[in-house]
Amino acid sequence: MHVLHVIMKEKINIAWLKRDLRISDNLVLDACERDCCPYLIIYIFDSDIIKADNIAKRHLQFIYHSIKDMNSQLKNYNRSVKLLYGSSTKILKEYLNSYDVKNIFAYQESGIKETYVRDIKIKKLSKEFNTNFKEFEKDCVERGLKNRTGWDSRWFKKMNEGITKNIFTLNTFEDTINNFEPPKSFINDISSYPQEYVKPGYKNAIETLTSFLDNRSQNYNKHLSKPLQSRKSCSRISPYLSWGNISSKQVYHFLKNHKKTKGIPGFLTRLKWRSHFIQKFESEHQISYRCANKVFEKMKYTNDSSIINKWKNGATGFPLVDANMICLKKTGWINFRMRAMLVSIFSYQFDCNWKLGARHLAELFLDYEPGIHYSQFQMQSGTTGINTIRMYNPIKQSNDHDPNGVFIKKWIPELRNIPVEYIHEPWKMPPLINTLSQDSIYNNPCVNIVESAKAARTKIWSFKALKEVKNENKRILHLHVRNNIRSA
Domain ends where: 88, 113, 138? Predict the structure, then answer.
């Protein structure tokens, strides 16, 4: 007589973290605790996504140290976020084969094509194993939205709901899978953290937000566009929101419950504005690789590789442009207006296709968020079709927002001895007082800014007037424009 031995797999849940690296107001971790089943918390450094998703070393560093911060809080419960490396599909399939996985909990990710395809594969894989793949809505961004009717009201309603208070039990589950540990060389590479970047983690997010609400917000509106002063007067919480060290709802409640100061209403508007643009991307992620107005795919550009490289390296000869690119490389942050200026001059005066610059800036922004990045890159490049053409003159911006050249001189040592009256246009210095080397890029910027701007205006406005562009605009307006905006 033969006895059939059935090996019973241990039943577990999996909390799969993505851009939600916190242990407070986290629905994924809350769902695991409420289900009363042993669970594992994982973060996957997906080797395919890292290559495709504009992820740079600075992002991986921020992620790694955010998780270290989480683990320092979770250790009291004998829990930690397990770091895994490789294909998300292969890793989760290994867990599904090894355990009786009841649920995979995760937040929806409004990412580019590669993350979308990844999540579709995981959903299909979960069905094969009869596992529930439960995704939670993130930052009030709705999946499957056909138009914006009622979106604003729903945003305020969701933001005013209570914050999830995560409570943890003591863990007794021991994971036996060790196939996907990150290579030591990879961990060694991302374990350092430059002091010029904002420090990751929930505690640092709260401290940054508190200092903004208590005093720095006083000059928020006044200094919002200034490249130097904005480094203090802006909230500086964008990396924490992008990687989920803090949720939008947590920020909203901080704002609503704080004593009113001059800059807070404007900041609240921008918090909602943030969700608005991520919602646009969620509804049409294709704008990460094609023009929002599809007709603009036909537009021709010079795409001078020499100028593109100068723009990337902060060597265009335009002081404010170069100072911002150098600062961004070093610190991972510049303000919104300066970001818009970098994109504008690249697309218009330098006559380059936005796609050739989008990845470069994505890799430099420590707060890279696909929904914000691609929506804004196209808006500032004029390829949405529905927005006003915003062509920034870098010399005017320099005069308006860095009149004494303090920011410029901080980041471009070569220009520190240049008289203030010539700091915005060094090439106009008379020979007798010109202290620059003869071959300095600031004697001869890479384009004639007046002529190139004139040519760009002629091209973009004539293209925007095409009938087929206007017809495509109707589709865009129907899908993305909000029609019932109200205040909180």
Answer: 138
For the chain, give the longest Cα–Cα distance.
106
> What does the alpha-carbon distance between residue 149 and residue 171 come to, in Å, rounded to a whole number?
44
Predicted pLDDT of residue 267:
84
Residue 1 falls inside a structural domain: no
CA nearest neighbour of 354 among 306, 297, 309, 279: 297
Separation between Cα atoms, residue 428 and residue 192, nearest integer Å: 43
Tokens of 467: 């009938």
pLDDT value of residue 258? 80
Burial class (CB in 10 A: 0-12, 13-18, 19+), 217: buried
Helix ranges, 215-260 (H):
220-223, 230-233, 238-242, 248-257
- The answer to whether 143 touches 115, Cβ cutoff 8 Å, is no
Helices 394-401 and 319-331 cross at an angle (nearest 10°) of 70
The pLDDT score that the predictor gives to residue 260 is 67
Burial track 238-270 (b if 16+ CB lie within 10 A, e otherwise): bbbbbbbbbbbbbbbbbbeeeeebebbeebbee
CATH label of the domain that carries residue 103:
3.40.50.620
pLDDT at site 482: 55
Domain of 129, in residue numbers: 11-138
Q: Residue 316 maps to which CATH number?
A: 1.10.579.10
Please report, in angstroms and rounded to a whole number, the separation of the first and last CA atoms in the chain: 74
Give the single-character DSSP code of 138.
B
pLDDT score at 299: 94
- The answer to whether 80 touches 41, Cβ cutoff 8 Å, is yes
Task: Please give the average pLDDT of every successive group of 10 residues along the chain, which has 488 residues.
Answer: 63 98 98 96 95 90 98 98 98 98 97 92 98 96 90 94 96 95 97 97 96 90 95 96 97 84 79 93 91 92 98 98 98 98 98 97 97 94 88 97 98 96 97 92 97 95 88 83 48
| Residue 439 is assigned to a structural domain of this protein | yes
Cα dihedral across residues 268, 273, 274, 276: positive or negative: positive
The domain total for the chain is 2
Name the pTM for this structure.
0.94
pLDDT of residue 232: 95
Q: Which long-range contacts (CB under 8 A, 24 or more apart) does 212-216 make?
A: 212/236, 212/237, 212/267, 213/254, 213/255, 213/258, 213/261, 213/264
- Tokens at 318, concatenated: 């335009």
